[in-house]
């Protein structure tokens, strides 16, 4: 059975099973949760570099991971694995893949530890709700489910204390899940901590403006994301410079070695003058845009203290201070680091303008490569047509 068929059949089976067989008091572990876990898993899997076969195993595992809830609440993972095995065998699915899927389902049990990337992806996706924007709503549904199914009723403060301990001790396994969920998970942790201390107001359906505000200085997740983004921007900038240098070298070689040979041939075959001119124009235009891609941005090296106080400049970039006196620079840095808001603004400004510069580089590089590709192909095509015309004329057609 093809991948699209087995995934489609599994999703249809799970949707029907959870819609018709799941008890109405299962408020959290329902079809909505299952599909959310599947979607999170696919995002993590793509970012983790899984191939199509591995993604198939992960997707089926996530779709099947809670179907055991239709039979039992406690230890439902074993029931889910058994139901999944029976269904997949009925579809002629390979035995070795079924084993991998059963192991991925088993690892969704809270006390289990994932072994290998496939299990880590499924495990992280199952706990993606910790880093979701509707975490508080999901907590409410889980609290109601525990009360209805397990008879475990918690007072509000006790419930938030329990979940605060859980979210503080939880760690994602895959780097991709950390990138996707950690920042929002940290926000949710702060909200739960606030509710433990102050209680949750009746109208507080979501985070307040203060709770939504993440401090880059205090949040390790935000710092990690900014560091990763800056590093990626720098790597992409180096890649752009290398691509530009490659085009400059290629065109320089063509002009230095190939064109002199063509010039000697043109004296005997002047009809090839136009294709020769096209090659020359293509090389020169490509070199112009490759050079523009590597031209540094204009920098003054001076920054007014008023601009620093107003948060309109970033003194962590050398182009803004290389012409300043040390005392001026020292005062500016003290202003930037004295207030958390100024420091955060400098971090964001650095990433923003690095991205603007990177966008300019790649725009110029795109034009350069398009000119080179189209120009060379057109030159070869014109030369070929010219050669054919000469052949036909020589034979008297």
Written account of the structure:
The protein is mainly alpha-helical. The protein has 15 helices and no strands. It has helices spanning about 5-20, 30-45, 50-65, 75-90, 95-105, 115-125, 135-150, 155-170, 175-200, 210, 220-265, 275-295, 305-310, 325-340, 340-395. The protein folds into two domains: about 5-215, Orthogonal Bundle (Catalytic domain of cyclic nucleotide phosphodiesterase 4b2b); about 225-395. Helix 3 crosses helix 5, helix 11 runs antiparallel to helix 12 (about 275-295) and helix 11 runs parallel beside helix 15. About 70% of the residues lie in helices and about 0% in strands. The two termini are about 60 Å apart. The longest helix has about 55 residues, at about 340-395.
What would the keywords be for this entry?
72% helix; flat; 15 helices; Catalytic domain of cyclic nucleotide phosphodiesterase 4b2b
Radius of gyration: 31 Å
Q: Find the structural class using helix and strand composition.
A: mainly alpha
CATH superfamily of the largest domain: 3'5'-cyclic nucleotide phosphodiesterase, catalytic domain
* Residue share in β-strands: under 5%
Model regions low in confidence, pLDDT < 50 over at least 5 residues: 206-214
SSE layout and pairing:
Elements: H1 3-20, H2 31-47, H3 52-64, H4 76-90, H5 95-106, H6 117-126, H7 135-150, H8 156-169, H9 175-198, H10 209-212, H11 220-266, H12 273-294, H13 305-309, H14 326-338, H15 340-394
């Amino acid at each position: 059975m093809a991948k699209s068929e087995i995934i489609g059949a599994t999703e249809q089976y799970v949707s029907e099973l959870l819609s018709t067989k799941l008890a109405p008091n299962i408020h959290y572990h329902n079809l909505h949760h299952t599909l959310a876990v599947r979607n999170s898993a696919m995002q993590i899997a793509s970012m983790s570099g899984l191939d199509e076969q591995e993604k198939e195993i992960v997707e089926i595992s996530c779709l099947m991971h809670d179907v055991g809830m239709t039979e039992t609440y406690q230890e439902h993972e074993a029931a889910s694995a058994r139901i999944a095995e029976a269904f997949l065998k009925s579809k002629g699915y390979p035995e070795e893949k079924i084993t991998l899927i059963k192991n991925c389902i088993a690892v969704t049990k809270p006390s289990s530890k994932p072994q290998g990337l496939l299990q880590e992806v499924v495990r992280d996706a199952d706990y993606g709700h910790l880093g979701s924007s509707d975490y508080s709503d999901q907590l409410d549904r889980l609290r109601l489910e525990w009360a209805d199914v397990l008879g475990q009723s918690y007072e509000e403060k006790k419930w938030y204390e329990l979940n605060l301990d859980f979210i503080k001790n939880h760690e994602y396994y895959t780097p991709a899940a950390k990138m996707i969920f950690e920042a929002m998970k940290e926000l949710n942790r702060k909200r739960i901590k606030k509710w433990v201390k102050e209680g949750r107001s009746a109208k507080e359906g979501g985070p307040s403006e203060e709770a939504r505000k993440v401090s880059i200085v205090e949040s390790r997740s935000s710092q990690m994301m900014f560091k990763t983004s800056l590093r990626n921007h720098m790597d992409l900038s180096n890649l752009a410079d290398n691509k530009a240098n490659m085009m400059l070298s290629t065109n320089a070689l063509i002009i230095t070695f190939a064109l002199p040979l063509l010039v000697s041939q043109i004296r005997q075959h002047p009809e090839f003058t136009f294709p020769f001119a096209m090659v020359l124009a293509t090389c020169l235009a490509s070199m112009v845009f490759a050079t523009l891609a590597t031209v540094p941005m204009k920098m003054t090296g001076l920054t007014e203290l008023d601009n620093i106080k107003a948060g309109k400049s970033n003194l962590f970039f050398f182009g803004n201070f290389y012409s300043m006196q040390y005392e001026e620079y020292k005062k500016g840095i003290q202003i930037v680091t004295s207030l958390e808001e100024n420091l955060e603004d400098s971090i964001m400004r650095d990433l923003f303008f690095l991205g603007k510069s990177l966008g300019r580089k790649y725009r110029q590089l795109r034009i350069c490569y398009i000119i080179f590709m189209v120009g060379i192909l057109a030159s070869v095509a014109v030369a070929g047509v010219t050669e054919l015309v000469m052949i036909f004329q020589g034979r008297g057609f």
